[in-house]
Amino acid sequence: MRGARSATWVAGAIAVALGVSACGGSSDSAGSEAGVVRAAWGDPQNPLEPANTTEVQGGKVLDMIFANLKSYDPKTGEAKNDAAESIDTKDQQTFTIKVKKGLKFSNGEAVTAKSFVNAWNYGALATNQQKNSYFFSDIEGYDKVAPAEGKPTAKTLSGLKVVDDHTFTVKLTQKMSTWPTRLGYKAFAPLPEKFFTDHKGYLDKPVGNGPYKVDSYSKGSQMKLVPNPEYKGDDKPVNKGVLLKVYTDSNTAYSDLQAGNLDVLDSLPAEQIKNAKTDLQGNYVSQPAGIVQTVSFPLDKGAWSKKGMEKVRKGISMAIDRKTITEKIYHGTRTPATDLTSPVLGDANGYSKDICGDACEYNPAEAKKLIKEGGGLPGGKMTVSYNADKDSHKEWVDAVCNSVNKVLGDDKACVGNPVGTFADFRTQITKGEMTSGFRAGWQMDYPQIENFLTPLYGTGASSNDSHWSNKEFDGLLKKAAAEPDTKKATKTYQDAEKLVLDDMVAIPLWYQNGVAGWSQNVSDVTLDPFSVPVFSDIKVKG
């Protein structure tokens, strides 16, 4: 599951873009420190433990204070070795990992093979209650440290072995050629001895091995990061630090940005987006991010699970005028989807501009025909449920339903169904209480098609909210994982994706862009494929 983080982040992804986080009045702390980038931020949900951070605000900090075995190119998203000297395998199941020598944490501790093995064992162990524990589920012995039922019968993963100070091996439960790609995700970050010997001290002031280190943190106010003098990697900051200022209202942040009291804002208010480029004198970027939005259905029971409903779902997809909706509501910050992944993957990692084909094209006549052939909407109507605690979903849900209703000639055929808070909404989904369509979204954990398929559509997968099950699909996932040729593996994953789209388990809507604006005080502001500013490259003028 990117379960926790993806569902939460994307549920909040638009919410974050509309300003769920940050301090209502930051002008009182507007003073600029020479060379320091001032950026809008929100307090993390949990303490900054890599295996327990599942949302974007905490992840933003972890990206700056940790360097993983892999990192993702900020332009292409390509996974490349970072703290790893090499990652080798002869059978795609047992991997030998060599950690670069001379690496240190910000407190001077050496980064060793044990730094990774101890961190992964801690993250996997059920009694530590780390939300990202499932990321270690492919490693041999996970069923013992995090059993589905009962208490753990082991404290460490049997598939992890330290060979020497800078070498360790990983044995997976099955072959998986693309497994190393995910090692840039922060759940796999190394941890210093301080984390285990003085846990409270670590939580008060986290210690990492990345480009920055935590200088100070005042909850509800700000966190200051400064360059880590021990960092020897390729991403050394060109600035003197980053001041993350907490906001609770994005409009206040936007006003501060315009006034020069803030330098970087990557959560622009929706109502300001259409004017942002002009307001900010061109200091604005909108680009595709690794996020896709969909409408899903409960397929394990009830009317939507019946034979023929795949035609109805395909008809609904063809009844949605994605182009008009994204243009009128999102002003170019959303792009109509043509698959279930994201353009940021590129062709090599599985993105396809035509795999959905006609099913994702607006075609009123064919849509109406398919819905009729499939038996029609169950009971003559459908709902699209969404969390109503933020105003970011009602507008697009109403637009989608209006599009469907127009095709069917019935203004009550599809209606939005607001559900209290995000927590209420997710509870209904996890308890299997959904009876019709519901909004869904996914932010990638790592740039590979597998991450958009396995957690969401595999039988019994942690984020398979539709409860769809297809043996052929599961078989293709295993085949792709075991394929040593990544090009062939990607093609097999796409074959699996076609099965999801044939059943239209989830209707692809649009890809979500990352957006950001910046002040005249800084330059070289870019977003990575995860829609996060590349802080180490930002230059402060003067």
Task: Tell me what you see in this structure.
The chain has 16 helices and 19 strands. Strand 2 and strand 3 (79-81) form a beta hairpin. It is of the alpha+beta class and 542 residues long. Helix 9 packs antiparallel against helix 11 and helix 15 packs antiparallel against helix 16. Strands 11, 12, 13, 14, 15, 16 and 17 form a seven-stranded mixed beta sheet that branches. A four-stranded mixed beta sheet has the order 1-10-9-8, covered by helices on one side. A four-stranded antiparallel beta sheet has the order 4-5-7-6, with helices on one face. The protein is globular.
Q: What would the keywords be for this entry?
A:
542 residues, alpha+beta, 7-stranded mixed β-sheet, 4-stranded mixed β-sheet, 16 helices, 29% helix, disordered N terminus
